[in-house]
Amino acid sequence: MADNKEIVKGEEVTLEIEPGMDILEVNKQLAHKNMELLREHNVKAIDIMGSIGAGKTSLIEKLVQALKKKYRIAVFKGDLTTTIDAERIGRHGVKVVTINTGLECHLDANVVARAVERISLRDIDLLFIENVGNLICPAEFPLGTEKRVVVVSVTEGPYMVVKHPFTFMTADVTVINKKDLAEIMKVDTEQLKKQARDIKPNMKVAVTNALTGEGVEELIKALEL
Amino acid sequence: MTTQIVDSVLEEAEKQDAKKVTEVHLVIGKLTFLGIEQVRFAYNILVEDTIMKGSKLFIEEKDGVIECPSCGYKGSIQYGDDPAYHVPIPTLRCPKCGKAAKILEGKECTIRSIKMLK
User: What does the pLDDT read at residue A77?
Assistant: First the structure.
């Protein structure tokens, strides 16, 4: 750890320490703990990142509907201030914990650890964690999930992927949502797919319409659920 | 992030009973979303009214290094060369075999050293 060099100049003492401490490391260690705890209980956790209004909550609703017979599901819902989305998801009869971040633009491993304390891991097999709508900050804060999904939608324009390469690097699956609007928006979903794979060659991609449920099967396959 | 950096430096300085912090050396990876300009800007505001006021901030940027689990390539990350983008887009594609590589370096935000007066 600290490698101290002390230099005495007259009355003044200069001290140089080398803490070598990584600010992001604390979160990584906590994320690792979360992962171990979840694995111990055979809970598969999935972090769902994505831009504001991309359709993260609608997708989770559809995933819950499709999977609730096969798995016992819980959802953590990151949200700055409200519980609106939590109520939406809760209607499908699964346990929802809202994580109101207040000011923070992303979830971190610490708030997830606290949310985990509020559920009984023995009673679930699958955990969706909806991150705060943001394509930047969540990239730096792994939560300890098995997989990370990033959701973008065609209404955000054709450059969402190339503008946020570091976020896509951390993801296993990319969802391109609102496919029904692609033509109107003049956005080529194939192009977005290609861009995601240029950044990460083994990226799995699902093109969906979260309102109708189209493409959700594809996403479930990509998540290996 | 800068708040965390400043808090951590202050904590270390307190442990050493320092009167004043004179230099802070950071290492920031190029594969993070951290902007050097913004870190500097926030730093200068955050150190006001602390023993870090007036300290010099040195930031070393670290290039991205990847390792390919398929062919064993280890080296710098490649960037796309599409002239349409002002900032080159990094890719995890291995330059040797084309498969997906993993990031080894470039994601760090480390306080390398702190100089202080006791």
Answer: 92
Task: Assign B67 to helix, strand or coil.
Answer: strand
At A183 the three-state DSSP class reads: helix
Asked whether the beta carbons of A128 and A220 are under 8 A apart, the reply is: no
- Per-residue pLDDT, A102: 73
pLDDT at B81: 77
Nearest to A145 by CA among A169, A172, A168: A172
Nearest-Cα distance to chain B for A221, in Å, is 20
The burial class, CB within 10 Å (0-12 / 13-18 / 19+), for B67 is middle
CA–CA distance from B37 to each of A34, A149, B58, B73, B114 (Å)?
Answer: 33, 30, 12, 33, 20
A71: which 2 tokens? 């798995």
Neighbours of B73 (CB within 10 A): 15
Q: Write out pLDDT tens, residues A14-46.
A: 888 888 888 888 889 999 999 999 999 999 999
Is A21 in contact with B111 (Cβ distance < 8 A)?
A: yes
CB contact under 8 A, A19 and B12: yes
* Amino acid symbol at A205: V
3-state secondary structure of A42: coil
- Coil vs helix vs strand at B41: helix
Both tokens of B8, joined, read 């951590």
A28 touches B at CB < 8 Å? no
Say which residue the tokens 């951390």 belong to. Answer: A170
- Which CA distances in Å does A140 have to A23, A25, A137, B33, B108? 11, 10, 6, 8, 10
CA distance B41 to A218: 45
pTM: 0.84
- Res A3: pLDDT: 59
- Residue A41's nearest CA partner among A144, A138, A133, A139 is A144
- pLDDT above 70: residue A12: no
Question: Distance between CA A169 and CA A172 in Å, rounded?
Answer: 8
> Tokens representing B77?
């990350």
